[in-house]
Design goal:
The structure is a homodimer. In chain A, the strands form 4 sheets. In chain A, strands 4-10-9-8-7-5-6 form a 7-stranded mixed beta sheet, with helices on both faces. The longest helix of chain A is centred in the C-terminal third of the chain and has 22 residues. Helix content of chain A is 37%, strand content 14%. By secondary structure, chain A is α/β, with parallel strands linked by helices. Chain A has 2 domains: 133 residues, Aspartate Aminotransferase, domain 1; 247 residues, Aspartate Aminotransferase, domain 2. At the A-B interface, helix 2, helix 3, helix 5, helix 6 and helix 11 of A face helix 2, helix 3, helix 5, helix 6 and helix 11 of B. Chains A, B: It is an enzyme of class 3 (hydrolase).
Amino acid sequence: MSAIDPFHATRALFDLPDGLVYLDGNSLGALPKAVGPRVAEVIASEWGGQLIGAWNSAGWVDLPRRVGDRVGRLIGAPAGTVVMGDTLSIKVYQALASALELRPDRHVILSDTGNFPTDLYMAQGLIASLGRGHELRVVEPEAVEGAIDRSVAAVMLTQVDYRTGRLHDMAALTRRAHDVGALAIWDLAHSAGALPIDLLGADADFAVGCTYKYLNGGPGAPAFIYVAPRLADDARPALSGWFGHDSPFAFEPSYRPAAGVERMRVGTPPVVALAALDAALDVWEGIDMQALRARSIELGNLFIAEVHRSLSDLELASPEDASRRGSQVSFRHAEGYAVMQALIAEGVIGDYRAPDIIRFGFTPLYLGEDDVRRGAAILVDILSSGRWDRPEFRRRNKVT
Amino acid sequence: MSAIDPFHATRALFDLPDGLVYLDGNSLGALPKAVGPRVAEVIASEWGGQLIGAWNSAGWVDLPRRVGDRVGRLIGAPAGTVVMGDTLSIKVYQALASALELRPDRHVILSDTGNFPTDLYMAQGLIASLGRGHELRVVEPEAVEGAIDRSVAAVMLTQVDYRTGRLHDMAALTRRAHDVGALAIWDLAHSAGALPIDLLGADADFAVGCTYKYLNGGPGAPAFIYVAPRLADDARPALSGWFGHDSPFAFEPSYRPAAGVERMRVGTPPVVALAALDAALDVWEGIDMQALRARSIELGNLFIAEVHRSLSDLELASPEDASRRGSQVSFRHAEGYAVMQALIAEGVIGDYRAPDIIRFGFTPLYLGEDDVRRGAAILVDILSSGRWDRPEFRRRNKVT
């Protein structure tokens, strides 16, 4: 372990309840202190004070691009290649619909069982709409590379598996896709803000992601989409809304796409949510992503070591090799739901993913070694004592 | 005019800059005072204090339906038939894609030149994606009824014309559509909160709308979608995201639509924006929509009379008959852009719509007779004096 927490200073930028061990920043990031005041200002001074004029005077109209550039710096995307808006599901749809049109003679979308379900659902919906015999081919994560062949129009993968934390090799799989003429779409939901990403260097074609996890943008914060500059003027946005029009305020009868990635904007931007995200991104100023990754690995390894020191039988669902893992650690337990409820009741927040995963996220910006040791100790204690085995911990919540 | 403003009390529920005459609530509604505190609470106590647990403990997961029911009460939609989320553009796409699948043997989408461009753009995008020879047939508003024939799969109309304020007869056109086996999709962007709407009574098939105009939900506030109960279990959501799945947290590999309109949810709901809207809807509690409509007509008629008393030549772009008009009044002026900029500089906020429309919205909840008289007087004065004719008023803003 580092002698001194290199991210000690950033913890002060977050509001976290005293005594809580929050290991779920991979699901909903903690609240940056800058968000509340910034949102209050946007509501009172911009909306309340400038009203409709704020679209110009407060720069609302450019927020999706301006915030997109800030996200871009964290994922290896040059300025002008990322825009914000909608949800990850919608952005997946846009990327996939564009990709299929760019490969009209191919009919396979290749994905894996580690992809987040909404990506698969959106693909299924698109395929049903198109009605042209596209196939969603879903293989095991380890089988993806071998399954990329000349039938594949688009490889659609989440870089970090939401259950296990297994990390795909973005550069290698993108290269393999390009070698056979396929396009690569990367979902960065569990990568953006979790580890260094080099979209341009990996030559990714499309990337999408949400901002409410490691980027701390708030519940349901707007998503992002990246389109490779070499494709951005050719990709047709299936969801062709007025804010993706070249001249939205000319009110022309026919759609003409804006230049570049701006065409992937759809409707009126969610100003208040974008302002919250914009404020949340302040904590990332000056953060060295390599240092963050090193610290995330230290924390994750510490957690595994502390748990396995007492409970060597608890099955690690994540890769043991930290270089093959995102910023989360998962274990398998047949009664994972009840175990997680017991943990939450004792102030350690992780989450459960059906059928048997208990999941813990490591966010160096606001988590230290003490949190990790304490979380591990309580997990060990709960499992050793069996005190998870109570009816109240089996009662299912709507959201797990 | 009513002797006493029947909505005098509601004005106190809004924050409006002193001295401003805000006649643009049809574009961005004014700020309800309840919004700031409610959003601050959601950020600090729910996100900051309850973190991921707030999806259950603060009821975030049900916000799209709960807020949808509140909107539903204003548009004649029974509980459980409206959900919130995304933008109007996305909701138009969902409604239209579903409608086309429900009428697989027909290939015409009928709309009119008074529809808002994004509705037309989304239809164009969908048609291009489907590649099955659908046609977007756009006729003059007066020609819609005669153009509804057995080739039409869906009639897609905005009830109140964004430029002229002309009001379509929803019940009659829906009946006509049904008579020939077509479906009717209504965009209520300029109707919801502007006038009484009876979706169920009119037997509309789908309806969509935004909430940042008359409903005062804030810039880029979430949209809504209504699906007629008799269709809701048959409509396939082309945008099939995980929050529209029957069991989102089962993480099943295949999409299974939720029952009813909930299937039209797509991605993770925008919690902060929904909370702002939820607070904004408080001002609608107890409002009689018939009384609101009567007052809106009084204010609109007063504005027209005051303007025409001095400027009888200024061409009214809106129907003179208030029963055929929404809650806005528009005039035509070849230099409308500069005229509007001059008005704004003198504290009267309306907006301009290319090529020659100056547009004024009437929102009885926070506008009184004095505002209307003052706005009209300044418009008359600016036009009579010609002091709109200055270079600084011709300089184009990005957003008009």
